[in-house]
Records
---
Amino acid sequence: MKMTGSQILLECLKREGVEVVFGYPGGQVLPTFDALYNYEGFRFILPRHEQGAAHAADGYARVTGKVGVCLATSGPGATNLVTGIANAFMDSIPMVAITGQVPTGLIGNDAFQEADITGITRPVTKHNYLVKDVKDLALIVREAFYIASTGRPGPVLIDLPKDVQVGQTEFIWPEEVKIRSYNPRYAGHPGQIKKAAKLIMQAKRPILYIGGGIILSGAALELLELAQKLGCPVTWTLMGVGGFPSKHKQSLGMLGMHGTAYANHSIMEADLIVALGARFDDRVTGRLDMFAPHAKVIHVDIDPSSISKNVHVDIPIVGDVRGVLADLIKEVKRAPAIDDWLKHVDGLKKKYPMVYKDRNTVMPQYVIQQIEEATAGDAIICTEVGQHQMWAAQWFNYSKPRTFVSSGGLGTMGFGFPASIGAKLGRPEKIVFNIAGDGSIQMNIQELATCVANKIHVKVAILNNGYLGMVRQWQELFYKRRYSHTPITGPDFVKLAESYGAVGIRVTKKEEVRPAIDKAIKTENTVFIDFQVEEEENVFPMVPAGEAINNILGGLA
Amino acid sequence: MKHTISVLVENKFGVLARVAGLFSARGYNIASLAVSETLDPEISYMTIVVEAKDEKILEQITKQLNKLIDVITVTDFTKKEYLDRELILAKINYTPKDKPKLEAIFNKFVGKIIHHKADTAIVEAVGDQHQISELLEELNKFGLKELVRTGKLAISN
């Protein structure tokens, strides 16, 4: 049967199992939107900005593990997706972004709303395509989903000229995808795994250091099994939050710039680091030449280029961390003798506890703790980027993967709110909170309309301190309190929410915190809670950029 | 230090931009780059000479190249036997009385005069890295006015 390019696109998306597409119409995608009229193959959500579409697709992908899909028109529609694509790229999130393009005959002519989006996104996609012939479309869509979701996941962009959307051809569904130049390796090398097991069994001060790879590969159970078999401490990156239960006795919490002091001291003293799906980012290692001087490193990663990029690795294992862990568990015949180490780490925990000074005002950390209590820890927490993000990572005890949704690598303000929309659509049975700052929330606040129009009931906790808080904190600590353009005003968030048809609550006192959270959870609507928090509260512990990670500004600790 | 690598790529739209973009995005330097189709017109062959101050950077370059979906294989010739050649065209100061001197040079090197005018000549020459650099020293004695080079081509042996 002959179909148009647009019909083929929708049919392919449906066959790929797409449940929801986030998209925004425009001139060069009109044929595709015409095909979407009354289309029932999947749900379609209209955000209020293309950036919202990309982040929503990303948030959906993070909570479900499926490929997120967004769609925009050519030119400005496509360029508005770029931040969201780059964000997904940095955090290895599977996404397919589809853009309209001017007709093939006009490409390169500076046509109206033309942008070279394959050129623009080349460095921030895993791969991208410009479709020149409708006959290639079905295979390209298939390849795009395959590439996005396999190996180290990432975003793939498909640029679709208008004449290709209109063009007709026989629809042939490619049953199989095979790309000769792309063969991700999943199984770890058995010899390397044996060597790793041997090193682990001999270790005296081992530590498991886990990253987003644990979550992406679905390896949380295997990780728990290995960790319990070894009995050694476990620490994680921001992307690894939720990969290991925070309340587990072996848990050290997050490490790095805003990690716990005991995690940082432990990794600095370790004699063996087992890195699992983590990439030794500069926010984790601090000053590289002083990082973990006594440690041998075992590094498991599906991306060979992550291994030995920053830190010298003694035993590299290229492969999917889930399968490698399963093999490793079999090879580790006995637990290492580490009683002294555990006692020492326990001492570090007691010596440097996570604390904050409660001034009996609305403390941001307290708000996070109360959200955890009110939801019994069973919620999906999305964040924007800044102080609130670090507090959300530090003060909420996550116990399951895919419950913490945050922009790690790119650090994109404005990510959390649209991502929470994607998260709620992916996991409608869950309470979804977006923890925001008063700066970040204003970057994609237009998505309130999307929430209300589609009855996507997310709860937004704005930790409103009247500053771009994280930058202000750096200015306080490293720029002599010269608060250059960090004081920021905003709207009346309560009235703003109401004007969109959502619910707004203002909290100015400590005793109002919990009732407001409870009310927000009970309310069958999107809720903005404007928590007017301590203005100059800082995120501690903190390691200044470029310092060794045991050089910690403690705040109180 | 300079390293020679070859990259087999799918002969697809934008593939050169992907490879070149990778080098610029990650701050690696390309000393020379030569690209052409292979016997299989669906595949292109690139010879790239890169500046890498240590092994670690070279390793990253090859790993990052391998990550590109359109890259089929990457060969680092640092660890392999290979032959390399480069073609140059040079415009030099030249009068007919220089002819014997130039001929003497081309007894040692592979090359010839392909064009001349009253006061200049264009010569072509082929050789490996060392031969080309020695030849250029010789040609410099005449006065090199202009020089174009193909960049290195390398093939394993």
---
Amino acid sequence: MTVLDIIKSLGLKVYTETVGMDREITGGYTSDLLSDVMGNAQAGTVWITLQTHINIVAVASLKDIAAILLVKGLEPEPNTLQKSLEEGIPILGTSKQAFEISGMLYQLLYSNR
Amino acid sequence: MNLYQADLHIHSVLSPCADLEMSPGNIVSMAKNMGLSIIAITDHNSTLHAPLMRRLAENAGILAIYGAEVTTREEVHCVCLFADEDSRADFQNFLEVHIQKVPNKPDILGYQVVVNEKEEIIEEVEYSLHGALNVGINELEAVVHAMNGIFIPAHIDRPKYSLTSQLGFVPPDLNYDALEVSINSSIESICIHNPSLKRKRFIRSSDAHFIEQVGSVTTTFRMENLNFDGLLKAIKGIDGYDIMLP
């Protein structure tokens, strides 16, 4: 499943236009502590968070995160968006809160197992 | 040049987590006993005790800086210091507009009281000062500097409510005046793990919540006269002004 697939299936907003649409997704990780994400998130995951600071792009890049998904309608700060375009990491958005969108993504990724 | 002992991170009884003994009067007495020349009262997301603190401190020959320990949207604690009553009042207004107003439950979260010089309660803050502002750390920095304040991310080495816990690492583009490091970490080892911090300014303070902690950790300021401008110069390390850490 690719970033584009989950955007279509979950009706996500895309802040980074066409960047990284064909990245392969292997799972999800929901956390708002960047130190925790640095320590524990796996490569290829969608990172679900409410953090919008520019450091999320560096952490995503470091951990080979497939895409960042912002919850509750939060938007990336301007320099965060700029950095994500440079790094080629898609930033997506949803109006849903983390529990709901995590459940939806989980179902989408694992319902056929 | 003169040397002054400073503790720029002290909570008063207004902070829900601070001990009830932390009245402005007791803090000033303790600061005097500890030989401090400069203190900053930095309650969580409030400056309401600062004016009384300054009056009491002046009588004791101590410079009391107006301040607050602000919780950003990322839940990073930042010490913000201001020169005068005008900027303090502006900043207090900013805090009240932007904090998420969750009603306080004193029996669970702690009492949040403002007292007078007789230690009588004159006000109780009804929303929780544990709450975060709906303002990101970059925006807070810009607001503090627009008010000619000093911006110091607090206890960056701590595993909670710090730049490193909340944001993973110190953002290279963040325009802080200094980074506060607890007494538990060596600046040298922080710089070994984060080479980009080598030329940054560091400060240590007590983060006192109990009276015996006031002045337990201090930074020495080398400056001409005891005032806010000198404090800023020393933190920045310009014109021969400087700070020395324990």
